């Protein structure tokens, strides 16, 4: 018997680009796996799409029962270049046959350096930059905070309402939402303070007004003398795809620059062409001191980075940063291929086109349905926030029902938001227009039926 299972479709753009339902979701094979999952995998590790994935690519995900689902989630903003992207697959195959690991801290290799060079080039600002590589977004955030503390000699860190920065101890402390991320997992890291975010739909403030409010809180409750860093997602991810009002981020950056505080942009979700620019920071005209990246960086391989001003990045003594697997050579090869695709295959422009399609369709829906309180986002990072008509009161039940109906009809949508009342649209940039339009038809039908 061949070791290649020919019954399993191969991923990447070769997959038929269609929505195809041959069983109910989940079908029998998926149900079988989910039963094994329930018996073998810790309950704390949950899932939102109840299927057994066997292949994915372009704009679809195929399950073990032969269903083909339209992917509007990209595995949470990871497969931005497309799942099993041919350039990424080729790079991984070549590298994995050469060597799989040395530990960069034991014996260095070129691909790590090449990823650092690429990140220093593509991140905002033309100042001298350096990078360090890690495995996960949370690890990148942890290290950005370490670096900022070492550089400033100060300890306090300010994060914002609705922030999400990860699930490790420090990043739980930085994350705003208790359930499910923090509840029962304390005590949390100390010297973390929370400032009010600019959330135009809910606070009605202009950017400068919201900036003033946040800075006042920081000055009164923390004090610049104690503050190492401010960390913020330029467009928030898990917190609800919250886009701050124009002028908010520049006000915070200006205050940080004037007060010896390191400004960290957490672009783990918003980075790499997702928002229609290489990084969301560019859309607000800000240049972060440090920027954390992960998710979209390597086409699905686990890799993360901190990139920033060389003098800040170099403040740490040798051996102070790193980790066994950080900048793994296979993940680095994937990142080089993915960054090449972002820079040279028109993906920034594609994100803008997808954004126009998403915004046009969702604002049209909003015009006829008062339950959609807000439609917002940039590029291929767009959300609809659901409320009780005529109010800003969140409607989490409607949101969950619409998402569930979409999934049952073969469209992968993800929810988010502090109040659980946001559906986020973040398709792979390899999705075709027709498939995207069909996915949005299904969303509209699900909304009409609920
Ligand atoms: C997902 C995410 C993280 C955490 O990344 P992991 O790789 O899951 O540790 C951190 N910050 C933001 C903005 C994220 O979206």
UniProtKB/TrEMBL annotation:
SUPFAM superfamilies: PLP-dependent transferases. Pfam families: Aminotran_3 (PF00202). The keyword ATP-binding does not apply. Its cofactor is pyridoxal 5'-phosphate. Keywords: Aminotransferase, Pyridoxal phosphate, Transferase. The keyword Flavoprotein does not apply. One of its GO terms (molecular function) is 4-aminobutyrate:2-oxoglutarate transaminase activity. PANTHER family: AMINOTRANSFERASE CLASS III, LEUCINE_METHIONINE RACEMASE. This is (S)-3-amino-2-methylpropionate transaminase. It comes from Microbacterium candidum. The lineage of its organism: Bacteria, Bacillati, Actinomycetota, Actinomycetes, Micrococcales. The gene is gabT.
């Amino acid at each position: 018997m061949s070791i290649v299972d020919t019954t399993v479709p191969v991923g990447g753009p070769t997959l038929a680009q269609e929505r195809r339902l041959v069983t109910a979701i989940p079908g029998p094979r998926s149900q079988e796996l989910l039963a094994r999952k329930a018996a073998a995998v810790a309950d704390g590790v949950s899932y939102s799409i109840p299927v057994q994935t066997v292949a994915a690519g372009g704009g679809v995900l195929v399950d073990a029962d032969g269903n083909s689902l339209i992917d509007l989630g990209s595995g949470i903003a990871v497969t931005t270049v497309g799942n099993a992207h041919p350039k990424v697959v080729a790079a991984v195959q070549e590298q994995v046959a050469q060597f799989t690991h040395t530990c960069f801290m034991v014996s260095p290799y070129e691909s790590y350096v090449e990823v650092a060079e690429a990140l220093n080039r593509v991140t905002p600002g033309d100042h001298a930059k350096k990078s360090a590589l890690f495995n996960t977004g949370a690890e990148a955030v942890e290290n950005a905070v370490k670096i900022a503390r070492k550089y400033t000699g100060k300890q306090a860190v300010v994060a914002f309402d609705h922030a999400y920065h990860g699930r490790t101890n420090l990043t739980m402390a930085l994350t705003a939402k208790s359930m499910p991320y923090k509840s029962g997992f304390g005590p949390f890291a100390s010297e973390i303070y929370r400032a009010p975010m600019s959330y135009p739909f809910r606070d009605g403030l202009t950017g400068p007004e919201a900036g003033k409010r946040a800075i006042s809180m920081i000055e009164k409750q923390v004090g610049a003398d104690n503050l190492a860093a401010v960390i913020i997602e330029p467009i928030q991810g898990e917190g609800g795809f919250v886009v701050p009002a124009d002028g908010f981020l520049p006000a915070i950056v200006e205050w940080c620059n004037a007060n010896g505080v390191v400004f960290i942009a957490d672009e783990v979700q918003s980075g790499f062409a997702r928002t229609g620019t290489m990084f969301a920071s560019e859309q607000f005209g800000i240049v972060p001191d440090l920027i954390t990246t992960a998710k979209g960086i390597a086409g699905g391989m686990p890799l993360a980075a901190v990139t920033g001003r060389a003098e800040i990045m170099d403040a740490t003594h040798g051996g102070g940063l790193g980790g066994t697997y950080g900048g793994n050579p296979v993940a680095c090869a994937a990142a080089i291929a993915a960054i090449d695709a972002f820079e040279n295959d028109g993906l920034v422009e594609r994100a803008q086109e997808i954004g126009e399609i998403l915004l046009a369709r969702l604002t049209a829906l909003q015009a006829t349905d008062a339950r959609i309180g807000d439609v917002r986002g940039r590029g291929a990072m767009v959300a609809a926030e659901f409320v009780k008509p005529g109010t800003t009161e969140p409607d989490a039940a409607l949101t969950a029902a619409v998402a569930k109906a979409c999934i049952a009809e073969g469209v992968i949508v993800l929810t988010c938001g502090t109040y659980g009342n946001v559906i986020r649209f973040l398709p792979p940039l390899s999705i075709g227009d027709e498939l995207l339009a069909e996915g949005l038809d299904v969303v509209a039908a699900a909304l009409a039926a609920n």
